[in-house]
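Record type: monomer structure entry
Structure origin: computed from sequence
Chain ID: A
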Amino acid sequence: MAQRLLSAVMLVTVLTSQTFAEKFLLPNGDQITGRVIQQDEKQIVIEHPVLGQLTLPVTQVKIVPPPTAIPMSQPAATVKPVAEQTLPNEQTIKPLGWASRLRETWDSKLEIGASTQTGNTEQSAIYLRFKTTEKNNQTQTDLDAAYDRQAKENDATANKFTTGVRREWFVLNSKWSRFGQGRWDYDDFQSWDKRLSGAVGVGYQWLDTPKWKLNFQLGLGAAKEFGSNNEEIRPELLGGFKLGWEISENQRFGAGSTYYPDISDPQQFRVVSDAHWLLKINNADGISLKIGLANEYQSEVDPGKKHDDFRLFSTLVFDF
């Protein structure tokens, strides 16, 4: 009877010591349960119910905190999935429409020029040009279209339309690039009615500073005229330059010229040249005044036609 009583007392003692004991994490990852008997800056003495007293370095022992219990009177909070959580001041992000995407990625310009004169002589003129450009570190794409009509005494003296596309691929960490281009022209007063042309080649950015830009181009292409005395496809070379000068914050100057010699007969060629001066009128609204000249010279024309097609113009430019 005494032996049973002693065993019961020892069992109660062990259970009581474990009830009020703490858990300790050892360096090898094992956990033990015991009570702290003594502790100083260097070592800690733990009383284990089976192993007895253990003396361990303080730096090698970590007390494991007991788990935090949730009061029975307060139910645990339900965590919503991430997709269902609503952040403060959350705003719904709507996809951009096609017009917004166009403004984000493309730089577009609309040029408008018009004049009229009445009295002893009646004259009128209208010029419209649209150009849009998309450029990144790898490529640049240009799309343009222009219409020009002039009349005197109700008789048209100029009626032309042109549209083209150009794609340029930049060589990484180089001044060189590759390009391909195509153009469709219509003109009532040329030796041809319609003309289709295209070319591929390389470009070299000789100057590229905030103030000056100068690019040279060399390529190979072909042209075909419709409604002229020579409607054969003519292979031709391409050589030209483009110059840009940032005169000031509000003024820019640009010029360029491209020479197209016929490969089969170099004496037959055409030259397309232009120059312009641009003055920003309203920076906030993107309105500018543009004054310039353009000319196309063709060495071979039909009888009664002029070699030069010269135009002097002034337009308002709207950026958007």
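Annotation 1: Residues 5-20, 82-94 have pLDDT under 50 and may be disordered.
Annotation 2: Residues 242 and 256 are 4 Å apart (CA to CA).
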